[in-house]
Structures are given as C-alpha cells and as structure tokens.
Design goal:
single chain; 379 residues; alpha+beta; f41 fragment of flagellin, N-terminal domain; 53% helix
C-alpha cells in the first residue's frame, strides 16, 4: 500500500507514530526481560558486545586450563601418597636393620668330645697336633685338657690366635665352640676345625643365622618398596617413575620433575648386604654389613625428603595459579556481565511505564480520530 493511499489527520498521524515508538520500546524491553541482557547482538551495542565476547572467550580458556591444573594436582597427590608409603617402608627396613645389630651374629658350632694325643686338626689350612695335658705345646700343637670342656677352651684359644683365623671369633660354652666371623675376609666354615685322625671332635656345618633371618624380612620390605613406587601413578603419569608432568597456565607452563623412587633409584641398591664372611646365601654376617645398609637407608631417606620438598613446591605453585585463575574468571565474567546484563528492576519499571503509555497512546489516537468521525453526522 502506497504511503499516500490513506490520508490521516495530523493529530492521528502524530499519535500513531508515538504509539509505534511505544510498541518498539515494549518489544525491546520484553526481549531484555526474557534474556536478562540489554546487549544480545552486535546491533544492540557493538563495542559492549564484542568486548564482553572477548572477556568470556578468555574466561573460557582459563577455565579449560584450570581443569588441567585440577588433574595435575591429583597426579601430585598420588605421588605424595606413594612417597609416604615409601617413607614408611624405609622406616620399617631401618627398624629391622637396627634389630639385626642387636641380634646374635650368624654362627656355626663345634662340639668337642674326647680327643686323644696325636689327633691332627686342621684350622684355616694349617694342621695342629693334639699333645698330652701338661706338655708344652709347639706352634703347631695344642694341649688336650683334662676334660672336653678344657680341651674346647684350648681349641678356642688356638682359633682366636691362629694367624689364619684372625677374623674369626671363637667362644666357648662348656664343650661347645661357637664360631662367628668378625669381618668379610674369612668364611664361617673356613675356620671350622676338621678331624683327620682320632675321634671326639664334630664340626656342625649348619650355619645358625639370626641376622640373616632379619635380612630376609628386610629384603621383603625393599621388594614392596619397588612395587609401591611403581603403582603411584594417576592417569598414566607416575612421578615416582621419573615421569615429568607439564602443567599449563595462561601464558606459561610449569614442568614438575619426577624421580625414581625405587630401591635402586634412591641412591644405591638397598638389598641386604651379603659378605664373603659367610655362605653365599647369607646376609648381614657382620655388623659392618648392617651399618653399610643403614647408611644406604639414610641416603635414600634424604633423597626422598629432597624430592618430596620439590613436589610440595610445585604443588604450592599450582594451588596459587588455581586461585588466581578462579579470581580472574570471576573478574572477566563480572566485566562481561556489566557490559551486557540488563537491570531487571529498571526493565520491569520500564515495562509498566510503556504499558501505561501504550494505553494512553491508544486513547489519544481514538480522541484524534473523533474529528474525522464528525463528518458522518452530515449523512
């Protein structure tokens, strides 16, 4: 329909324009109330719209990075749990080693019975001949005592002074000689006297090993230490197996260095020391063996504490960045909202006012049309 097809009076056209403006404002206000925003598209306010969009885009990126931080915290927590477990196992191993120091040394026993003159006994590869009681013994001889106990005492003295067995300790209880190594240079069985003639002397080749029993328990603990460190990962990342963790922040990346928390990785092999002073399957024959392993445990504990402190430092950084990211997301969201959100109280008041104006405009338009209606009275 052409603009001039219908002629309206000036009053009617003025009221109609005002009513149309009111309807436009009503539609805009209804849209704001429905969406909660005063800027819904770039047409509403280009600067505010694109600025708010940039704020929300950055907030979304930071939120994604924050999710990665949360997962990184869980990786470090898993490693921390593993460290606590490894530390407890090291302490258990230390307790066993200290108990072994208080336990009797690994030993063999020799039972002495009746030995006749002329009996030859080999000690450390040297032959010693038994002589009658009261006879002065030469360097390669020993005296027979008046009974088995005194003979055992003479033999023990010989073993303790013989050049071949300076690293062997012989102790006497009645007619029983107990032999134990004092260093790693002599095997327990090397100083066990063997009878080549006569009777009455029995060498027990069974080694009694209270320290070795504790060493076996110790080795079991060390085995569990390796198993624990190998299972301290989270989502495929195990910081206790030398894996590294890259944590992304806005504009930078933090690399959390892992380390080897196995028995071998904590300095040196922590398996109980075996010495040549005993049979090949024995450990901790000597107190010096135990002291060496205690020193290794101390080294391992110190390394574990050092690496744990590094992880704690990294965790602190991540926690700080998490808090910063949360605050930054809130700041960006608040800024975007201030640019785009509508004041619902204001828009509600506007709606009431526009509805009133619409009613008044309709009434005014009706009044303006009465002048044109007067023409009908002529007919």
């Amino acid at each position: 329909m052409a603009l001039n097809d219908i002629s309206l009076t000036a009053g009617m056209r003025s009221n109609l324009v005002n009513l149309q403006d009111t309807v436009t404002l009503l539609n805009r206000t209804q849209g704001r109330l429905a969406s909660g925003k005063k800027v819904n598209t770039a047409l509403d306010n280009p600067i505010s719209f694109f600025t708010a969009q940039a704020h929300m885009s950055r907030a979304s990126s930071i939120s994604a990075l924050k999710d990665g931080m949360n997962e990184s915290v869980q990786v470090i927590k898993a490693a921390d749990s593993g460290i606590k477990g490894v530390s407890s196992l090291l302490e258990a191993a230390r307790t066993l080693a200290q108990s072994a120091k208080q336990a009797a040394s690994n030993y063999v026993k020799v039972s002495v019975g009746t030995i006749s003159a002329g009996t030859v006994i080999t000690i450390g590869g040297t032959a010693y001949t038994a002589t009658a009681a009261g006879v002065t013994a030469a360097s390669t001889e020993f005296n027979i005592g008046t009974d088995a106990a005194s003979t055992a005492s003479n033999l023990a003295a010989l073993i303790n002074t013989a050049a071949e067995t300076t690293d062997m300790q012989a102790n006497v209880t009645g007619s029983m000689i107990t032999l134990s190594a004092k260093s790693a240079t002599v095997a327990l069985t090397s100083a066990t006297a063997t009878v080549s003639a006569g009777t009455g002397f029995t060498a027990d080749t069974t080694v009694t090993a209270p320290r070795n029993d504790l060493a076996k328990q110790y080795n079991t603990v060390i085995t569990q230490l390796d198993a624990l460190s190998n299972t301290s990962g989270y989502k495929g990342t195990n910081l206790l197996q030398s894996n590294n963790l890259n944590v992304g922040f806005e504009g930078t990346t933090l690399t959390v260095q892992g380390f080897d928390a196995s028995a071998s990785g904590l300095g040196a092999s922590l398996t109980a020391t075996k010495t040549s002073g005993g049979a090949s399957n024995l450990a901790w024959c000597l107190a010096s063996d135990i002291d060496a392993d205690l020193a290794k445990l101390e080294t391992a504990t110190n390394k574990l504490n050092t690496e744990s402190a590094k992880l704690s430092s990294s965790l602190s950084i991540i926690n700080i960045r998490q808090d910063f990211s949360t605050n930054m997301i809130n700041t960006l969201t608040e800024g975007a909202d201030k640019l785009t959100l509508a004041d619902m109280n204001e828009e509600g008041a506007n709606m009431l006012m526009l509805q009133t104006r619409q009613s008044l405009g309709t009434t005014s338009l009706s009044l303006a049309s009465q002048a044109a209606q007067a023409v009908l009275r002529l007919f």
